[in-house]
Fold this protein.
Amino acid sequence: MLWERIVILDFGSQYTQLIARRIRENKVFAEIVPYNTPIDSIDREHLIGIILSGGPATVLGEDSPKIGKEIFALGVPVLGICYGMQLMAYLLGGKLGSSVTREYGRAQFHIKRKSSLLEALPDNSTVWMSHGDSVETVPDGFVVTGETDTLSVASFEEPEKALYGLQFHPEVAHTEFGNIIIENFLVRICYARQDYTPASFVEHTVGRIRNEVGDRKLIMGVSGGVDSTVAAVLIHRAIGRRLVPVFVDNGLLRENEANDVLRMFRSTLSIPVRFVDASDRFLKNLSGVSDPEEKRKVIGHTFIEVFEEVANSIPGICCLGQGTLYPDLIESVSFRGPSATIKSHHNVGGLPEHMRLTLVEPLKELFKDEVRSVGRSLEIPNPVLMRHPFPGPGLAVRIIGEVTKDKLDILRKVDNIFVQALKDEGLYDKVWQAFAVLLPVHSVGVMGDERTYGNAVVLRAVVSQDGMTADWAHLPYDFLARVSGKIINSVKEVNRVAYDISSKPPSTIEWE
Ligand code: XMP
């Protein structure tokens, strides 16, 4: 069974992914494709509606992204948002103008005419605008359904043909009743069944993995992180012991991490995972390396070597599982068209082609929060699903300068005290990521009657939606005081603790 779907033609708006998320929140599957995807290649059997996204271009500008008129004759409802609305108007014979002042930000929207799309909205509400052009004259057969104080056409429609346009962005949280508009489009106009649920995703995906893998064996690197764990559990449901999950200890993990991950897989999830302790090899290859990018390269290459050796030691491995997510694949580059290079997931990055493994990526259509919901429906324990992201190169990028075993031991202790305190005091789930960084700096201190010359560490905690931008977490002072005291009292090598109060941008989340 495949779900009904809405196809979003992407004209490059920064909000395109948001449209997809809002639709999926309404239990309808949404797929983003580049605007110039040939109509024939769209799966029409399950198509229930089309959305034309916004975009940075001007419809009347040279080289602006355009589509053919055929899209409006497919017999499925079409909603144009911002650029998408202007393009719809232009293609169907309306007139555009850029005479009004450019409008960015909040505006008051007034309903002028009853419309299925605007059902249940109050007559006046706040909407979010971001446009230069506007529709001056609507195409024949269309009616204006709403206006703002500066725009006479803020929404229009041709209900007979199920064509709708909105000059504002319903997908953005600042549009007060945006969710209702999206729900109206899905339910009242596209008659969506709303059957896209985590449970239906699991059922469908397990079947799909069985088809893809057949009776072959699949190898997969697992880290204990959300994505690879959810992917592994799904694959395990589909093919059982023909899944060979491999957990590599690179020596750059946090306190007790290797044991915790193994216990989770083996005891809690009943998935027999293969454990490879390659920590000495990683540390040896890292010796003398202090440049951050060089560290990443060494770690990446060593991982591939180890992984390939394991794969070669198991007869009959033909497939490789990956926890790639939707944002890894699309970004908004899809606007540049199907030929645009798709970003390779940093964990897939360097796997050598000669391994010739069939890639199986069961989560590649999901956003992070959807992965968590699927994880819940698979009964994966909540602490795993809510775990903070942890970078592939691990603690190596949190030790400034050369990585040694001694420094790793110090950092592990400090990191553990900080993270455990966040958990104990109910703050862990309120931050996106929290960790400690070991500086290549010693500072003078005094303990009892003795002068000390110890390590300086930095604590970093950030809040973020997606890791792309982040603010430093405003943790309570008394909490920080308790953590600092505990670190200095129990980690004898450390005599100074600082808290990082920089945001991203211009800083990054990690120090290296
Ligand atoms: P930055 O430091 O770029 O981090 O602000 C953004 C997010 O990415 C994680 N990160 C990495 N993840 N390999 C990874 O798998 C890496 O080399 C890497 N560098 C940064 C970081 O922890 C944060 O969540």
Summary: The longest helix spans residues 292-313. The radius of gyration is 27 Å. DSSP finds 13 helices and 20 strands in the chain. The chain has three domains: 5-189, 198-385, 410-499.
